[in-house]
Specification:
CATH topology: Rossmann fold
Strand order of the largest sheet: 2-1-3-4-5
CATH architecture: 3-Layer(aba) Sandwich
Order of helices and strands: HEHEHEHEHEH
Strand content: 15-25%
Mean pLDDT: 88
Number of helices: 6
Amino acid sequence: MKLGEVLNKFLNGKSILIVDDEEKIRDLIGTYLRKANFDCESLVGAADGAEAIRKINNQEFGLIIVDIVLPRRNGLEVFKELRSKAKTKNIPVLIISGNLNSSIVKKAIFLGAKHILTKPFKYDVFIERLSRCLGLEVQNL
């Protein structure tokens, strides 16, 4: 079974929020999810941390993919807020960044992040990391 098929069942009607200030990265993730047979009608994008928090407060998400370097609220602030609320503390989060210096990684881990992906990333690596983030065992290649 492909990841997208498993993911559709896992999300049970909830959406995926992709938070990145680069539209091309949001588009790339959508392309990768389509390639994995995910129903991309339930993808929601946000270009900054403040927009992400607004969307999280107004909609249910089953997965959040968030960049660390964002305008208006960085990804670690978004992650910290997610973990501080009962409604959102258990949502799986995949953190992505092109700038993973040791202090950022340490702070992310301190906040409870378990799944971090470095940009740029290829399809196979994205799918593998996303599968691990969700605790899924799938064959997708």
